[in-house]
Design goal:
Blueprint (H helix, E strand, L loop, with lengths): L5 H7 L2 E2 L6 E2 L1 H13 L4 H13 L8 H10 L3 H8 L2 H5 L8 H8 L3 H15 L9
Antiparallel strand pairs: 1-2
Helix pairs in contact: 2-4, 4-5, 4-7, 5-8, 7-8
Length: 134
Amino acid sequence: MARTPEWLSLTSLSYFSAEDMKRLPVREVSLLCERLRSVQSSDARVQSVLAEGIRTRVLDNNTLPFLVQRLALSGNWQLAVQVLGSECLDRRRIGRDHNTWPILERAAPCNESRDAIRLALIRLYGGSCRTQAK
């Protein structure tokens, strides 16, 4: 079996942040998503998993949008909104990226869900709402 070059394996298993080309921990974020999905019925457990992700340095300003995107695009948009509204992010001063807004809106299956996402994000971002195109 041919051995894969190290640079190729690192490139294929990582997602590079556009800001500073820092390697994001894709596998760790994927595991964090799985853990969040398994405990999504309990808000306290979600907070605990997020706090552990912050302590282990998997969750930070760079990986939060990636985590939210993975949750939303896998159909867990409610969990993604719950993660964005987490108090753990505020306590650790992890900023919420405004680019997650359109990702969450596109992930909504219907108009009622889209409206619920919009209301939750307006509460989170403090009224800097996007205008709805009609």
